[in-house]
Structure formats: C-alpha cells, structure tokens
Specification:
The protein has 330 residues and is α/β, with parallel strands linked by helices. The protein is 27% helix and 27% strand. The strands form three sheets. Strands 3, 4, 5, 6, 7, 14 and 15 form a seven-stranded mixed beta sheet that branches. It has a six-stranded parallel beta sheet with strand order 10-9-8-11-12-13, with helices on both faces.
C-alpha cells in the first residue's frame, strides 16, 4: 500500500471552494520527475487569494495550495538531485495549476528547484519565501539600475507586509536610508527595528498623483501599484530606479511619461514566477549573504498546516505582519 501523507486540499463547491485536510498517496499527485518532502511552506498574498477564492488564482480543482516550499528530496528520476538534498521551490504555477507546498509530499519538475544555500535553514528559507525572494529581485533591480546608498533614500511601500519587510531588512544591511510607507501606524517600531529610518503614512502617497512632484526618492520598491506607485514615480529623483512587484492597491497606473523622459526614471517590473534558474540562484545566494537572520526571525509568525486555511483572509485584510511560516508537519 502506498505511503499516506497529509495535504490541504481545495475543492470546488456550489458555494465556491472549501479547504480541508486529507490523507493522500503519491498516486494522487500530479506528474513530475522529483518527489520532495516539504518541511515548511509560507503564506504569501497570492496564497491568501487562493485560500479565500477572492481572485481566480486556482485554475483547476481539486488543488493543493501553497506557492512555495523548502524540503528534502526523496527521489529524482533524472539524477539532477540526490535523496537528502535540501531544495527550495518558488513559483512555476505551484498552488495554482500544479499541486503546491501545503502537503507533506510534492511531485514536481527538477528544473523548478533551487538548492538550499548554505547558512539558511528550511524554516528560514520559507520565512524568506516567495515574498522575500521577490524583495531580493527588487534589490537586484535597484543595484543594476545604478542606485547606490549615496544617491539618497529608498521608498518601500506596503512596508509591513512580506515583501516590504524583507526589502527593508535587506536595504538596511546594504547601507541604504529607507523611508517605509505603511497604512498601520502601529507598525512603526517594528519597521524601525528592521532598519527603516523614517515612517510615512500610506495616505501621503494615495492622493491624486501629479505628473511631476518634488524629487524625494533615489529608488523605490513598490508592493502596492495604482496611485501609490504613480505618486512614487512622480517623486523619484533624476535617474532613479523603481522596482514594481505588487498590486495590493490596484492594477491601474494613473501616471504620465513626464518622469521617464524628463528625469530618466526607470520603472522595472519584477516577475518572480518564471524567473530563469540563474536569476533565482543569484537571488538566493544574495539572500544568504545579505539578509540578517536575527531580523528575519523577528518577522516570523509560525502557523501549523492544520490552521493555515484560517489565515488567508488575514493576509488580504492586512492583519499579518512580516512572514507567516507554515510548518507542514503540524
């Protein structure tokens, strides 16, 4: 008889969708050449959308959600990995079109996997998770755009969230001055503990944007989109770089070409789901090098797999802070 393991499964119902813990076997999983035992997963904004059905993230049912995991290889048909290897998976449709990380076993393609860097445990890797990996891609974009600490402050929007928290910690360790924008004034001390120099209210960036405003930011990590991003663009200094990675405030962008053609501002889109392997490996290597693990630990809320379905609505309503790590064994 095949080994049985626990998984959180989303089923489609007449009322929408329903999550439940089920006992599955490997025969129940989707095709792939590598079997992994996830130790930890995490809760990202997209996971919240999937768990609640607030957006059509899940493309087919039943589905095991969880867009990332860290764990140990059980078997690999092609030999790219050996049993016992520690690996990370972010993206590639995990938890959307392919069974995801909220399970004690996952069958995936070896080409989707990145080796766990030295110095990071599986739990810390999922404290980083897709959100933190995306934050590192944003930092790389700022660096490649020529932004350095002597150019001036970096704005991080949605700073108390997963991407924002890791971005603040990374930028602080790299020596940048950081202006953190948040809609939760109660998170000011938390953000300062991560390295933010100044906290501004979300409202300062949510009004009707001007085509050009006073130059203020040398660069931006934006997790919000819409008017927030438009205002940030209008305030970015000459030659500055903006890394846009989120849409918590909306998908629209009510701006003009003026900052781009008069100030040479660069707007870089950050795509994490299908990033090439070399880019993923670089991001994870830099995370191992540049992320303060003590600050990372301060961001973590640990949640057992048996309770994660209750957290989907919390992350969508801004009731989470930092990173929620899912212990798949509990």
């Amino acid at each position: 008889m095949s080994e049985r393991f626990r998984a959180l499964v989303l089923d489609k119902t007449d009322q929408g969708q329903e999550p439940s813990l089920k006992a599955l076997t490997l025969d129940d999983l989707m095709p792939g050449d590598t079997v992994v035992a996830p130790a930890f997963s995490t809760l990202n904004y997209k996971d919240g959308l999937a768990l609640t059905g607030a957006a059509p993230v899940v493309r087919s049912f039943p589905m095991i959600p969880g867009i990332d995991f860290a764990g140990e290889v059980i078997s690999c048909e092609g030999g790219a990995f050996q049993p016992g290897d520690q690996v990370i998976l972010n993206g590639f449709g995990l938890g959307e079109t392919h069974f995801g990380g909220y399970a004690e076993r996952a069958r995936v393609n070896a080409k989707w996997l990145v080796r766990l860097p030295d110095g990071i445990s599986p739990r810390h890797a999922m404290a980083v998770g897709t959100a933190g990996y995306t934050a590192m891609l944003c930092v790389l974009a700022l660096e490649e755009g020529g932004t350095t600490p002597d150019h001036g402050p970096i704005l991080v929007t949605g700073a108390a969230g997963g991407v924002g928290s890791v971005a603040v910690a990374l930028l602080a360790k790299l020596g940048f001055e950081i202006i953190a924008s948040t809609g939760r004034a109660s998170e000011a001390d938390y953000l300062k503990s991560l390295g933010a120099n100044e906290i501004i209210a979300r409202d300062e960036l949510s009004g009707e944007p001007r085509a050009m405003a006073k130059e203020r930011f040398a660069g931006v990590v934006d997790c919000v989109g819409s008017k927030t991003l438009a205002n940030a663009i209008s305030m970015t200094k000459y030659g500055g770089t903006i890394a846009a990675c989120g849409l918590a405030g909306g998908m629209d962008l009510p701006t003009s070409v003026a900052p781009f053609i008069l100030r040479g501002v660069k707007l870089i889109g950050i795509e994490s789901v299908h990033a090439p392997l070399a880019r993923r490996e670089l991001a994870w290597a830099r995370l191992a090098q540049d992320l303060d693990l003590e600050k990372l630990e301060a961001m973590i809320t640990d949640v057992p797999l048996s309770e994660i379905s209750e957290w989907g609505s919390k992350i969508l309503s801004g009731q989470t802070r930092g990173r929620v790590v899912v212990d798949v064994s509990k």
